[in-house]
Amino acid sequence: MITSHDLIPLSTYRKSRDEYIHKMIAYKQSRRIRVNEFISLLFENRQTVLFQIQELVNSEDLTDHEEIAEYIEIYSAMLPAEDELSATLFIEIDDLPLLEETLRKLKGIEHTLFIEIGEERIAAIFEEEHNDREFTTSVHYLKFPLSELAKQYLLEEPETSAKVHLILDHPQLHAETALLASQIRSLKADFSHNK
């Protein structure tokens, strides 16, 4: 749960914003997984969501408490529940025509992303599905609901031997990547510290 009391006052935040951004970039390095050359997944938690809210308040120059509370409520939906992982998927291509072509090709991506934890394959549940149009979007919010067995494996298996993979199995693109020990350790910390 995030409340307005968790936010740094805007004037204070602006004085040390560069330092805060630098720390968050370093923190996110162990939480951002490269699926292929143009798709990545950032696992969200309280710290990453709080940072997004703080940046929004800064960029929009928000001071109205009710408006800030509305944004906190919207962004808090990205917080993982007790038995899930939460993430943002990014499709990042600088060439606009190529990006548009790729977004058309990856229509239906919402049904083709999985995480494998040990021997268990878990489908991502996307916040929105785009079945009513001929393209997908470049940013998606999603969650992986974990079984008790998957959560136990994540918590108990040593990071160096744990098998955790992200799998994209789309008709137009297949990609699979194994999480590094540092990335698994970061996810494990979410459960052991915040759950």
Textual characterization of the structure:
- There is one protein chain.
- This protein is of the alpha+beta class and 195 residues long.
- It has one domain (4-194).
- The protein is built from 7 helices and 9 strands; from the N terminus they run ααββααβαββββαββα.
- It has helices at 10-15, 17-28, 46-60, 65-76, 96-105, 148-156, 181-194; strands spanning 32-34, 39-44, 84-91, 113-117, 120-123, 125-126, 139-145, 164-170, 173-178.
- The strands form 2 sheets. The chain has a 5-stranded antiparallel beta sheet with strand order 1-2-3-7-6. Strands 5-4-8-9 form a 4-stranded antiparallel beta sheet.
- Strand 1 and strand 2 (39-44) form a beta hairpin.
- It is globular, with a radius of gyration of 18 Å.
- It starts with 9 loop residues before the first helix and ends with a helix.
User: Could you tell me the strand content as a percent range?
Assistant: 15-25%
Radius of gyration: 18 Å
- SS class: alpha+beta
Uncertain parts:
none
Measured as a percent range, the helix fraction is 40-55%
How many helices? The count is 7
* Neighbour order of strands in the largest sheet: 1-2-3-7-6
The average pLDDT value, as a whole number, equals: 94
Indicate how many domains the architecture comprises. Answer: 1
Largest sheet: 5 strands, antiparallel
Number of strands: 9
